[in-house]
Amino acid sequence: MPVASYVSSLHSFGAPVNFDQVRIYSRRLGTGESGSSEPPVAEVQLRTGGDDTPLAYFRRDRDTGSQVEVSQAEYNLLPRRALYRQDAITGALLEEVDRATYLSLPPAEQGPVRDFDQGDIREDVVNWSPWSPPLVLDSTGMIERPVNLPSPRQYMQLRFDFHGDAENAIRLERLEVEHSPRLVSGAVGEVALAANPTPATGVVEVAGGVDTTFTYDIRTEFDAAGLDGYRGIRIEAFPAPVFEQLESGTPLAAAPDFELRVTEAGFDVLFDPVTRQTNQPLRVTFRLRALEHNTPVYAWLLGDDDVPPHPVAAGNANDAVGTGTTNVFTIEAVPEVAVTLDAPVISPNGDGINDAADLSMVLTQFTSGIDITVEVCDLSGRRVRQLVSAARAAGAYADLWDGRDDSGALVPPGLYLCRVAAESDSESIEDVKLIGVVY
After folding, report:
1. Domains, the chain, ranges and CATH?
2. For burial by CB atoms within 10 Å, which of 215, 318, 319, 425 has the most?
3. 136-178 pLDDT, tens digit each
C-alpha cells in the first residue's frame, strides 16, 4: 500500500535489557515517475515499556470520583456505561445515547456518566515511554541511531507511517536493535547545588552563564542474581560539565583510586568493579555553566567496553538531597549576552604585557544559532576592525583584539569602542565596551 499505518504487537526481550543502537534497512520501490513533488517516505517510531500493556485502566467511583487502577480484564467487567448527551451551554442532561453516538459528540457536549461506575483508559506514562521522534526513511539503504529511550526495560513496540503514491513507495526490509543485559536492577540519580542540596522549592536554580558547582548522587540496586555490575560513571550535559570529585560509601568519603577520561560532552570516571557485594552510594561533584533555561544532566553506568551504558533515571538517590531531579534551571528565562574584557587598556608593542584584549562572551537562553557581530570602532563610530561576523549557538566564547585594524596595521593610540551585537528572530541585544590603546 502506498499510504498505510502499522502498529506492532509488543516485543519482549525476555527480561529487562539496555538498548543501544537501532538499525533500519529500507528500499525505495517504484518507477521513479510521479505526479507528486514529494518523495515517498516512511516514518518509524519506537517506545519501551516495563510491563506487557502500554495502557492503564482505571475504575472511577460513581459517588466520590476517586480512581483505582485495575487490570484490563477487570476493566472489561465493569458495569455498562450509561451515556448521556449534555447541553454545551446549560449543562443540562439530554437524552441517553449509545456509545458510538456519545464518542462522536463534540468535546463540549460529552456529558457525565449517570447511575453507573465509569472506567477510564489512558496511556501508561509510568511504565511506558512516549513514542520516540520519527526516524524518516526516504531512500534505499540503512540508517543507524541510538535508541535513546528509557532502559532497562523488557518490552518494545514500534509504529510505522508510510506515505507514497501509486508509482513510488518505501518498503521496510529489516529492523535490528542492539541490546545487552542490564548491569544493575535499578539506578537513580539526583542533581543538586553543592551549596544548597535541599532547596525550599525542590528546584535546582542557578544564574545563567555562571560557573557553578553541583553534586550528582547515584544509588544502585542489585535485586536480582547474576547481574554484572558496573565499573564507571559517565556524565554529560551542554555545555560539557567539568569533573571535580568522586565520593563513595556511607558516610561519603573521597574515593581513593579512579581514572578520569574527559569526553566531548562531559567525562567518564572509571573505578574498581561495583557488584552486589561492593555496592554503595556514589556522589560526583562537577562544575557546569548553565546556558539554557532547562539543562538536563545525563548519567550512565559503564560496564565493559562492548556493553551499552546503563541509563540512570531521576529519583531519590540520597535522603539528604531534596531535589529528586537531574535537571538544572536558570533563574533567567530570557535571552542574554554577557560580555567582559580582561583589561581596559592594551599596549600592543610586542613586549608580551597587555599586548591584546581578551573579550569573553556568554550567550544564554538562545535555542538556536544567532547572528553575532563583534567590531572595534573609533569614537566617531567608524569601524577599524571586525572581529566576528558569524552565527553562534548558546555557549561561552573568547575573542581577541591585538590593537590592529582590518589591514593589519596598528591603530593610533586613543580610546576605542568594542561593540557586540546579537540578532535573533525575536531579540536584538547590544553591548559596548571601552578599550584604551597606549604605546
Report:
1. 3-53+126-181 (2.60.120.260), 55-123 (no CATH), 186-330 (2.60.40), 336-437 (2.60.40.4070)
2. 215
3. 998 899 999 999 888 899 999 999 999 988 788 889 999 999 9
